[in-house]
Amino acid sequence: MSQVSDADDIVRLSKEHAELKPVAEAAQILTTARDDLGAAEEMIAGDDPDMAEMAREELAELKEKIPALEHELQLMLLPKDKADNAPVILEVRAGTGGDEAALFAGDLFRMYQRYASTRGWRVEVISATESGVGGYKEIQANVSGDNVFGRLKFESGVHRVQRVPETETQGRIHTSAATVAVLPEPEDVDIEINESDLRVDVFRASGPGGQSVNTTDSAVRITHIPTGVVVSQQDEKSQHKNRAKAMKVLRARLYDAERARIDAERSAERKGQVGSGDRSERIRTYNFPQSRVSDHRINLTLYKLQDMIEGGPAVDEMIDALILQDQTDRLADLESNE
Predict the structure, then answer these.
(1) Mean pLDDT for the stretch of residues 302-329
(2) Exposed / middle / buried, residue 338 (Cβ in 10 Å: 0-12, 13-18, 19+)
(3) Residues 106-122: pLDDT tens digits?
(4) Nearest 10 degrees: CA dihedral of 316, 321, 325, 331?
(5) CATH fold of the domain at 88-185+273-337
C-alpha cells in the first residue's frame, strides 16, 4: 500500500489486506504449532527425562490442537463469494395470513433493522406499503456496511410464525408467513443493462384509497423486456429520484437472478445444502408460545425467540451456524472432487 497514491487503489488494497491478514495469521499459528510438535518429539527422544516428560504433555496437547487449526485454515482458504461485501436490497413481504402476516413482516423488518444497528450498518428504506394494522404488506430497504451480504444471504426464504394474533379473541394459535429476499447490489462491472431493453412508464403517484400524492407524473415503472422483471417506485416526489431507485432495485434483481441461475446449476451437485437460494422454501419457524425459533435447513432450534426478534445476539448465533454449515458443505465438496 505504501507504493501507491491513487485513492481507489489504496481502498482496494486495504480491503485485500483486511481479507488476507487473518488467513496469514492462522497459517502462521499452524506453522508454529507444527514446529513445536517437531521440537517436542526431539525432546522425547533426548537424554533428559524431565524435559522428555514435559515434552510428552506438550505433544499430546499439540496433537489435539493441530487438526483443529488445519480445519480452521481450510475453511478460511475456501473460495470467497465476491458479493459478500456488497450492500444489499432487503425485501420483506407479507405472505399467507392476512393482517397477522403483515404484522409479522413488520416484526421481521425491525429485527433486521435492529441487528444492522448492532453491526454499524446503515439502513435506508426505499419503499414501503403499510397495512392498516401497523405492519407492512411489503417493504424494501438498502442495507450497507461491512460484509452485509455475507451475513444476510442465508435469510432469503419463507419465514413462518406461530402465535396468537392480537385480533384473536379465543386464544387460538395462528400460522402466518412472510417472505424475505436479500439481493446483493452489483457493481457496474457485474451486470450490464441496455437502455434498448427497458420500457419506462411514468404515472401519477397515489396514496391509500386513490388519494393523489402529487399532481405530476412522478411515479416510475421500469420493465426489463428480455426477462419480464418489473420494478415500480413512487415514494419520491421527483421522477428522477424514483427512476434512480427503480434502476437500483432492477439491477439487484437481475444480478440476483443470474446468481440464482448459477446456483441452480450447482444445486444438482449440492442437493440440500444451505445456500440453495430458493425463496419458496420455508426456512425458519418462530414459535411464540414455546419461545423457540427453528431453522429447518440445519435443524437448529434456539429457545431465544424474544432475543432473536429484537435483533439481539441470537441472530448472530443463528447466522454463524448457517455460515459454518455452508463452509463445511463446500469443504466436503472440494474433498470429494479431489
Answers:
(1) 94
(2) exposed
(3) 999 999 999 999 999 99
(4) 70
(5) Alpha-Beta Plaits (3.30.70)
- Kindly report the pTM of this predicted structure: 0.69
- φ, ψ of residue 12 in degrees (nearest 5): -60, -45
At 280 the pLDDT is: 65
Contact 126, 232 (CB under 8 A): no
- CATH-assigned architecture of domain 195-262: 2-Layer Sandwich (3.30)
Which phi and psi (to 5°) does residue 236 adopt?
-90, 155
Measuring CA to CA, how many Å separate 77 from each of 10, 26, 327, 337? 24, 10, 10, 16
